[in-house]
Amino acid sequence: MRLTHLFTLALLLNLGACGAGETAATASLQAQQAQKAQQQMQQLKQQIDQANATNNQRLQEALKQTQ
Length: 67
Fold this sequence. Notes:
By secondary structure, the protein is mainly alpha-helical. It has one helix and no strands.
């Protein structure tokens, strides 16, 4: 009877360790995805800033032509 309890306890501990490993893997994947999303947002910001600079330059040129 004691052997059965020890086996059950060992099995539960192993399953718990697997769950912890999966949690760590999930957290790592989420961190990678968050970093990638941050990089994409930075790239979009740079594109928007460049488009705004181009539009501001065109606006200034158009204003000069009307004077």
